[in-house]
Specification:
alpha/beta, Rossmann fold, 2 domains, six-stranded parallel beta sheet, three-stranded parallel beta sheet, 10 helices, 11 strands, globular, binds NADPH dihydro-nicotinamide-adenine-dinucleotide phosphate
Length: 298
């Protein structure tokens, strides 16, 4: 059997960003203003700073307005809640993203629940999760939607396929499960207490790994011809010079020998996350402004 195709998340993300930019230009002429995304960063976590900078840049590149709010690490919770309330009320802001993780003295759940669900472009509020579980329209978490977009691009209709999702976090695993159910997959959710994980994974036409354990999923766990979506981002020491490199939750070379297609790390799921954030922002902008968005535009 030939080697699995690598699913090019960078190229898919670029295409999605181009579609968003087109829709954003149409929104600007219809609404008389740009769609706007507010990103809130508390503290100086280096990885979060990189993400926030990148989100701001890509928002502007897509023809939308970016509002960055950087608060010191010791910001009281009440002050952050007050900022979210101001952003909820600001008509120039269509989407609000509070960069996680927040410092330990702030209750993340409380802050997220304060975001207006109509501006919840990260899809993490209880209302958004409820809408997703009920199959109602709403804003869906970015990385999970990116995974399912890649799957549909790669396999077309997913109806009837056996999918195994490894991981049940609120951020990734659970929303992926809901989205795959909506695509009519037969979904199994595996986690740290799952018995005989390799045997469970071997049943899957689609494997989504969102665990956070470097190269845990081995080649001989994969059913021949399966499509593998590797969400994991793990930094491990590179053998040669002590520097670090990124690997996924799946042993890529081994899995490539068996699967039909697989997302590499980096360059697979990762680039989709911000592109979907921009997509969610322009979707929210249309809904909030009462402007119809053509079906299938995004
Ligand atoms: P969490 O740590 O919140 O969840 C990990 C999940 O994996 C849990 O459900 C846990 O099970 C399960 N798990 C842990 N160990 C095992 C094991 N040995 N066997 C089976 N399941 C196991 O992580 P996230 O969901 O937030 O993220 C997962 C990965 O995805 C991370 O590497 C993260 O960096 C990456 N990520 C990538 C993004 C991107 O843009 N590409 C965005 C978000 C995350 P249990 O519930 O039983 O504890």
């Amino acid at each position: 059997m030939s080697e699995a195709a690598l699913i090019d998340g960078k190229a898919s993300a670029e295409r999605l960003r181009a579609r968003v930019a087109e829709v954003a230009a149409g929104f600007e002429s219809a609404a008389g203003r740009k769609a706007g995304l507010a990103v809130v960063l508390v503290g100086e976590d280096p990885a979060s700073q990189v993400y926030v900078r990148s989100k701001g840049k890509q928002t502007v590149a897509a023809g939308m307005a970016s509002f960055e709010h950087k608060l010191p690490a010791d910001t009281p919770e009440a002050e952050l809640l007050a900022l979210v309330a101001r952003l909820n009320a600001d008509p120039a802001v269509d989407g609000i993203l509070v960069q996680l993780p927040l410092p330990a003295h702030i209750d993340e759940t409380k802050v997220i629940a304060t975001i207006d669900p109509n501006k919840d472009v990260d899809g993490l509020t209880p209302v958004s999760s409820g809408r997703l579980a009920l199959g109602l329209p709403g804003l869906v978490p970015c990385t999970p939607l990116g995974c399912v977009m890649l799957l549909k691009e790669n396999r077309g209709d997913l109806t009837g396929l056996d999918a195994v999702v490894i991981g049940r976090s609120i951020l990734v695993g659970k929303p992926v499960v809901q989205l795959l159910l909506q695509e009519n997959c037969t979904v199994t959710v595996a986690h740290s207490r799952t018995r005989d994980l390799p045997a469970v994974v071997r049943r899957a036409d689609i494997v989504v790994a969102a665990v956070g354990r470097p190269e845990m999923v081995r080649g001989d766990w994969i059913k021949p011809g399966a499509t593998v979506i590797d969400v994991g981002i793990n930094r491990v020491p590179a053998a040669e010079d002590g520097r670090t490199r990124l690997v996924g939750d799946v042993a890529l070379a081994e899995a490539r020998a068996v699967a039909s297609a697989i997302t590499p790390v980096p360059g697979g799921v990762g680039p989709m996350t911000i592109a979907v954030l921009l997509r969610n922002t322009i979707v929210a902008a249309h809904r909030n402004a009462g402007i119809e968005l053509a079906d299938g535009a995004l």
